[in-house]
Structures are given as structure tokens and as C-alpha cells.
Amino acid sequence: MMAYIKGISYYLPEKVVTNEELIKEFPEWSVDKVAKKVGVYSRHIAGKNETAGDMAEKAALRLFDEYKISPSEIDFVLLCTQSPDYFLPSTACILQNRLGIPTAAGAFDYNLGCSGCVYGMAMAKGLIAGGIAKNVLLLTAETYNKYLHPSDKSNRSIFGDGAAACLISTEGIAEIGEFSLGTDGSGAEKLMVKTGAARCHQPTGNSVIDDEGHTRFDDYLYMDGGGIFNFTLDAVPAMMKDILLKNSMTNEDIDYYVFHQANKFMLNTIRKVCVLPKDKFYVNLEETGNTVSSTVMIAMKQCLNAGTIHKGMKVMVSGFGVGLSWGGTILYF
Question: What residue ranges of the chain have pLDDT lower than 70?
């Protein structure tokens, strides 16, 4: 049985931090420098008491309202987040109750970052193909800013908080194609929050300076920017070839590309390395920043609203980053 995207909505927190506000904390930077490098002019930040679960709920309610979906139709809930409300239970279980979804529905969280949206599509397609579910609510929500050290100007300029909701069903606006998925756990430390979980539960207060001159705090999110950049340039071209092969397509068959909105420089480098037409390649982080697992769905929704993506198009979507992990597929609109 085929699986389709039936609708997409998203939610962004009310609080907005502009580049001008960041520059007040880091006067050695200029507004133009931040915008030119990462392509972000402002980003939404979750409130002090606002969680990934709260944002996912708001995105789901918006989806239900926008597409006239009844919670009673949902028979599975998937939530991708690396900032769950609790260590246990799964935030997806809490959302089942808060959203009024039947208790006959399955629900679980899965811990992935930048590739999480695509992995969720793959799992939802598997649930439908296996006859386990007919209407899967796929949610992505992240509050990375709660993991950032106040002095981490680099990551604070890149990441924004947000959530997205997607209904994957037996019919809809876009058929989901075959997947290319991959993992390289040897690069796990390139993007990591080291303390807080079972391996190292208590904060250490430790910090070191990495090779790029950035401070690596054990107790906050660390990203090896150069390492992630090099990984992406290795993984993405090979992944694209695999996606095309598995879907019996060539580059000429693709009408549009919606990739994880990591940062402007990385996206433009990928586009140039892979020789992709600029007018077929989506880049828009200006008012959202990198929302991790939600970037692909937010981008697709923006494209649908603008008419950039429409019926008859074949769209390649992909995510890549923390894990290290990557994944992509073709959406047939």
C-alpha cells in the first residue's frame, strides 16, 4: 500500500531574537556578517516554560484545523525530538492524550535531529505498508536553544526553535517514494550534548577549546562546524545518487530540491558541488534559522503556500547532520 503526505503545518514560538539583539551581546560581530555567513536574520526561541511537547501540540492542532482532520482519525503518533519533555514517558504518549487521539493509537518518540523528518516519513510509510496504521501523525519539535551556552555566539546565530506536523495517510497530495538512509556513529561527538543522560548524568562544568577556537562545554550543545561541513559534503552527493537509483530517476527528472536548512553557506556549497540549478533549490532560513528536524517540513509548507511546489512536480527531500545521520526520498506531488 502506498503512503502519501496529506497535509503539513508548523508552529514557531512567539519570542523572536534578531541579529541586532545578538550583536548587542557580541559587539565584535556585525549584523551583515551574521546574515551573510548563515543566512539568518532572526530566529524564534521557545519560552522558558515552553517545551518541544507544547510546540508539537500547537503544530498538530494547526494541522487539524487547517486540513479539517479529526483526532479520531489518527491511529499512530510519531514524535521526533532530542529535547523531550521528560526522560520518560515518551512525549508522544502525553500528546496522544492532550490531542484527544484514541487510546487504540500507537505512539512513541524517536531521537534524531536533522535527518529526523525523513526518517519519520520512512517509518510512517512502513506502518502503512504493513497494515499497522492508516493515518500517521508525524511530529517534529526541537528546543535546541535550551542546550546552548549564552556565550556560544556561533550556534546561537544558527539555531531556532520550532515544530512541524504532517499527516501521512493512504491518500493525499504527495506520494512518498523510496528512501536512502544512512548512519555513521563514529562521528557522534561532532554534534553532542555530553552530560545529562545515563552515560554522564551529572554536569561536569568542564570546557575545552577546539581546533577552530570554539569552546566545547560538556554541559551544553557542541557542534564541530568544520567536521559537520566535511561530513555533509561527503554524504549528500552519494545519498542523492542513491535516491535517484532507488527511484529509477535521473537529475533531469527532479523538479525541485528541499534539503535540511542547515545554514546558507552549507546549502549553497552543496548546490554548487552537486551542480544543481539555483532556481530549483530551496534556501530560506532568514526568519526561522535552523530548526533541526522541522526544517524540511517548514520549507515544504512555505513552498506549497507560495506555489513553488505544485501538482505534477517531483521533489527530492533530504536531511543530514547529528548522529551522524542522513536520509532522503522523492515526493511525487
Answer: none
